[in-house]
Specification:
2 domains; alpha+beta; 8 strands; about 45% helix; 6 helices; 3-stranded antiparallel sheet; PH-domain like; about 25% strand; 5-stranded mixed sheet
Length: about 190
């Protein structure tokens, strides 16, 4: 990842050191890196802000709490017969698995969006199973509109709308560091002049 600025300072730390760094390097910007033309380099890359995972995190935590409650109650309850204990254990384990799945879905959703500025173009890719890509030459970018709600300004996220010459506006919501993204696009456009 030499010569790239990866926006990892989006307010959430991994805490697992080297393993997290290795996973981030292997998964970071797979589409963008795989579709560079000769002589093209990535100047700036970002993705969706961690705030897109809040709903998934809340539901996963509530689900895990319910699972732990069921498992502890099944273990400590003396007035239950064996069949009831087994049913509570199975339900608790199923809730544990469901909580992990809910979290993973949020994590995949966040990491399925790639946004990058290269020395030739702006590249935005969303989705995994159904993929949508926008690749606009820097010379064709007419404007980039940035909208940051109050919490977005505090936490570092917002929406951008990329408008190309003669094209339709393309909005992208809850993007990490939208002002930096716009600044990098503007700097690269100035270099082309």
């Amino acid at each position: 990842m030499l010569g790239k600025q990866l926006a990892v300072a989006d307010g959430i730390g991994c805490g697992w050191g080297v393993w997290c760094t290795m996973v981030a390097e292997k998964t970071a910007m797979g589409y963008v890196d795989g579709n560079l033309v000769p002589g093209e380099t990535v100047i700036y890359e970002t993705r969706l802000h961690w705030v897109v995972m809040i709903g998934h995190i809340i539901f996963a935590v509530l689900d895990e709490c319910a699972a732990v409650f069921l498992l502890v109650y099944a273990y400590r309850a003396r007035n239950l017969d064996l069949q009831q204990v087994r049913m509570m254990q199975i339900a608790g384990l199923m809730l544990l698995v469901a909580g992990v799945i809910i979290f993973v879905v949020g994590w995949v959703r966040r990491n399925a969006t790639e946004m990058a500025v290269t020395n030739h173009r702006v590249v935005i890719k969303t989705g995994i199973a159904t993929r949508k890509t926008i690749e606009m030459m820097l010379s064709k970018v007419e404007s980039i509109e940035v909208t940051e709600p109050a919490f977005g300004r505090l936490l570092g996220y917002g929406s951008i709308v990329v408008i190309g010459t003669g094209g339709t506006p393309e909005p992208f919501h809850k993007m990490a560091h939208p002002l930096e993204f716009r600044s990098q696009v503007q700097q690269e456009i100035e270099k082309l002049r």
